[in-house]
Amino acid sequence: MKTREIGESGLITGVLSLGAWAIGGGSWWGENDDSLSVRAIHCALDQGMNWIDTAPVYGFGHSEEVVGRALKGRRESAVLSTKCGLQWRDANGTNHFERDGHNVYRNLSARSIRQDLEDSLRRLQTDYIDIYYTHWQAPEGGAPIAETMAELLKMKQEGKIRVIGASNVTTAHLDEYLKYGKVDVIQEKFSLLDRRVEAALLPYCEQHKITLQAYSPLEQGLLTGKITMDYEIPAGSVHENKFWWMPEHRRFALQMLNGWLDLTEKYGCTLGNLVIAWTAARSKYLNVLGGARKMEQVKENANAGELVLEQADLERMTRDADAAIANAE
């Protein structure tokens, strides 16, 4: 698999990474077999997909526990990222939401993220985190970035984290983070059908040599081509009320994918592989994060790690996606 450096950190990872949100199960994704998830993580490492990303809130600790179990004996071969700032220990914080019987709050105060870290280290059965993200920035009135960053830098000095990252942030947030220290990676939604980051965030990352880890590059499975118009979204699932999963918009995405069957034949790949390869080609500062909880899904995604699309085909896919977006608006 092709590799890239994470920002200027010196950490080298595969251009594709494994997202462990679905591994957490729960009402977002439904229950799953943890033993299959462990095998999927092992498969990812074997395929050169060495960056494993999780978060405390994924399954309310369950995803981290499964990842920790999977990395036992293989910790040094993995680049492990998790997050802080979404907590359900108490009612301290802002932007509260409820899920699976837990009340979750955004809290990036020094005290709270220190507890987040210690809880994650325990669940992951490790004494350090390679990449530590702030999960969601709190609105005005939350902990100031100066406080958050000071604690993250302290964690880094202690050797408990190696790289500081931020997720779901704006360029204004990043300006503030960079006043106090180095941020090497951010995580943000980016797909063929959702390219908002290209307006400002991705150019900012390129200017400051920050990696953008793109989550939901396959629109949570829609762009694999395996979802049909007949698919009914279960109530409460992660796909509920998502723009491209709504039938009135989904049909334009599926029409787009159906127009690329000649490309799958040309490159000997799946539709999902085409979409992942297009995403990785948009910038050398992109890492493509794909969720999976079965070995078959990991192997399929990994095939895109070596796929190089001709420029004319990249441009054709972009035009077709632009048409789908215009039709769906």
UniProtKB/TrEMBL annotation:
The keyword Nucleotidyltransferase does not apply. Keywords: Oxidoreductase. InterPro entries: AKR_Detox_Biosynth (IPR050523), NAD(P)_OxRdtase_dom_sf (IPR036812), NADP_OxRdtase_dom (IPR023210). One of its GO terms (molecular function) is oxidoreductase activity. One of its GO terms (cellular component) is cytosol. It holds the Pfam family Aldo_ket_red. Residues 16-318 form the NADP-dependent oxidoreductase domain. Transmembrane segments: none annotated. PANTHER family: NAD(P)-LINKED OXIDOREDUCTASE SUPERFAMILY PROTEIN, NADH-SPECIFIC METHYLGLYOXAL REDUCTASE-RELATED. This is Aldo/keto reductase. It comes from Faecalispora sporosphaeroides.
